[in-house]
Amino acid sequence: MHATVGDQLVQHGRVVGQHDKVGEIVEVIGQEGNPPYRVRFEDGHEGVCSPGPDTEIRHKTHQQ
Description:
The protein is mainly β. It is built from no helices and five strands. Helices cover about 0% and strands about 40% of the residues. Strands 4-3-2-1-5 form a five-stranded antiparallel sheet, with no helix packed on it. The radius of gyration is 11 Å and the shape is globular. The two termini are about 20 Å apart.
């Protein structure tokens, strides 16, 4: 998984009825775009995240 600053990190809900959690990557802490990432979520919460298999990176070049 590789990301750059400005990409979106989407954590998909794990159970029925749980919504996806979307945030913007504000810092790439790992080397060469690898995790961990500092992420600012839509609710204003910011944290360091090492994404799991239920996570998707949406690159800013592909967003519209």
